Amino acid sequence: MGLTGGIASGKSAVSRQLAELGCRVVDADLLAREVVAPGKPAWRAIVAEFGREVLGPAGQLDRKRLGALVFADPACRKVLEAITHPAIMARRQAILDAWAAEGFDGVVVLDIPLLIEVGAAAHVDRVVLVYAERDLQLERLMGRDGFDRAEAERRIASQMSLAEKVRHAHFVVDNSGAPEETAAQVRAVHAALLAEHRARRAATGPVS
Within this chain, do residues 204 and 163 fall inside the same structural domain, yes or no? Predict the structure, then answer.
């Protein structure tokens, strides 16, 4: 399954709960940090493109500085994505291949913020969207990252709207209410996905 959402929609909390329920999770944000570690090919390409001003004192990427730059300029964002996405996809595939070789037989979650935007939804069986009302996104984003309202609005506006993403989803987890309400929805989605997986396995038999 592909798990997606919008900035400050609560996707990370849903991802953690799915992991607790026994899913294997590939976190695209974590992979994105791995592939841009100092000295990695993607890190070198970013420095060559954007300059050393996007680096911190220890040579690591200053993610806030780079984020402010690319969110303000769609062209810069496309350049960054062209550098990082191939490296992230290669790392993700290596993880999936290792789990397949291990014989893992369960639900794999591809936690990808831009799942729909980058076309990755075509490569998963089911899309699960974590939804939150826009005002709640703004409130969480300002409280979490210390953005003023104008900057929070810009960050949200830079992404496909959650209302549009709903049209691409097989399941929607509404994270606008109490945590226990969200948790109940996640358990229900997980149960449905697991039942579908088991039905497929029963119909096709184990893969040799």
Answer: yes
